[in-house]
Amino acid sequence: MSEKIKVGYVVVSDEIMKGGKPVGYFYREKPSEPKDSGWRFFSGEETEEYCENEDNFSLYNASTLVNKCPELAEYLDNDFPISFELENDCYVEVDE
Known about the structure:
Mean pLDDT: 93
Distance between the termini: 36 Å
Oligomer: single chain
């Protein structure tokens, strides 16, 4: 049974959703529009060139991402600006 996450939409690298890689880095910035949560998710292996191509990223309801990666649910209530990276099998806050 999937839980409905009421955060809004998230932008996720295709390396995660289509390529099956785990989330290695994610951050929240000021949302760009009302339905946007401001959350951005990356595998951490994307090149700069990959990231510059918006076709490599898709917009998903946060629930869709959490169904794939349930360990992320506990982080989604954090306010912006904030970022996390995967370190030793757990996510730690990154000081920018």
